[in-house]
Amino acid sequence: MTLIYRLSIVFYQLAIRVVAPFNLKARQWAQGRKNIFERIKKQVQTDRPLVWVHCASLGEFEQGRPLIEHIKKNHPQYRVLLTFFSPSGYEIRKNYEQADYIFYLPADTPKNARRFIDLVKPEKVFFVKYEFWPFYFKVLKAKNIPLYIISAIFRPDQLFFKPGLIGNWYRKVLAGVDHFFVQNDESVGLLNSLGFQNVTRAGDTRFDRVAEIAANSRQLPLIEKFKSDRKLVVIGSSWKPDEELIIQYINEHEGIKFIFAPHEIKPQNIERILSSVNKPGIRLSAADSEDINTYDVLLIDSIGLLSSVYKYADLAYIGGGFGVGIHNTLEAAIFNIPVLFGPNYLRFNEAVTLEQLNVAYPVRNYQELKTAFEKLLSDDVLRDEISKSCRFFTQSNLGATRTIVSKVFNN
Fold first, then answer.
1. What pLDDT score was predicted for residue 289?
2. Closest-CA residue to 400 (of 66, 51, 56)
3. b/e string for 132-166 if b means 16 or more Cβ within 10 A?
4. How much is the pLDDT for 338?
5. Which residues of 286-304 are buried (b: 16+ CB within 10 A; e: fewer)?
6. Model pLDDT, residue 411
7. Element (H, E) at 286
8. What percent of the chain has pLDDT over 90?
9. How far apart are the C-alpha atoms of 54 and 67, rounded to whole Å?
10. Do the domains 219-394 and 2-212+399-409 match in fold?
């Protein structure tokens, strides 16, 4: 199995280089790792203890961020190294000022793992959620450097829980972890079934993050004036399949305001959405406070505003559920509003829980979307009940970061 895994890493790197000339993310992945050890050697100083936090991409960064910021505030003796696997995380957060050093993670080979860890000399290491890299884990174990997995979720269909050679090999990977901080009781039970007792149900650190975002959300007078006295639906991180359903609803209904904050904010995508609606629409960058309330559709064509826009919504639709998976539902739910999303949500523990609480509504097609919109937008009593459930859910899940740092840093 080790040989097969090593070959898979080699072929993955080769495939990245083959498609890099034609694919931006592949090109960023390859270029970001070019001469990486020379850059690490030049930049990373080892005169102070260092904590290494690794995230796959942007979503995992939002889970690791509360931990990083707690360490910087309460344990200033540590420098923080932040690594990413994906360009989707690195390219957006490469200038994140709370981390002392930010790099792509070199590919998981025995040589890379040894060289990387010898250069950065971490005192404590945190991997976020789904990141399990066998050779990095093996080197950390050999050097007695504590490794913690945070905000993790385990499911019965993962390879760790399969019988036979493959399952056994992946279970040995988990043996390199000093402590698992997981999101739910099922994960505790699954790890216990494999003999791992070094498990704590801490919850999801994203709750701490979104609560902080909500507390510090910006006042947006332009958004407030756009909404006026109408019901407002905010469509966050949407993709084309999401947008097509929403646009059909917009074109068939009156009296509701809509804000799109699409995942892709290139001008051509913004124009595609605007040209598809038969209601007055405008980009935020072109909006004027004098007449913005005369429009029914507003397109957010910049990043960084969505989390503050949600607080003006009566209802939120979270994109991605007709693709690889939904985006962050908690960013909207923290404002105590109902959320809708597409059918691909079962891998997201918080979305499943929100549905069970009758706060979230998955939709598979236009008819289901229409039914949910009409029900939620017309029933003020129902939305008030949802608001109370949201508030209880988010407040009762705060504190994962505190649980982790209390155990790891003994304070």
1. 86
2. 66
3. bbbbbbbbbeeeebebbbbbbbbeeeeebbeeeee
4. 96
5. ebeeeebbebbbbbbbeee
6. 62
7. none
8. 80
9. 12
10. yes
Q: What distances in angstroms separate CA 274 from CA 9, 146, 301, 304, 319, one per listed residue? A: 43, 51, 12, 21, 17
Q: Which of 117, 170, 165 is nearest to 141 (CA)?
A: 117
Q: What is the pLDDT of residue 11?
A: 87
The contacts of residue 304 (CB under 8 Å, 6+ apart) are none
Give the SS3 label for residue 232.
strand
- Helix segments in 175-253, DSSP class H: 185-193, 206-215, 221-227, 240-252
Q: What are the residue ranges in the chain where pLDDT is below 50?
A: none
Q: What SS3 state is found at 293?
A: helix
Just give the CATH number of 2-212+399-409: 3.40.50.11720
Q: Within a 10 A sphere around the Cβ of 232, how many other Cβ atoms?
A: 22
Beta-carbon contacts of residue 376 (< 8 Å; ≥ 6 apart)? 314, 315, 338, 361, 382, 383, 386
**CATH (one of 3.40.50.2000, 3.40.50.150, 3.20.20.70, 1.10.8.80) for 219-394:** 3.40.50.2000
Q: Which two tokens stand for residue 270?
A: 């913004």
pTM of the complete model = 0.82
Give me the residue spans of the domains in the chain. Answer: 2-212+399-409, 219-394
- Beta-bridged to residue 126, according to DSSP, are 53, 148
Provide the pLDDT for residue 1: 80
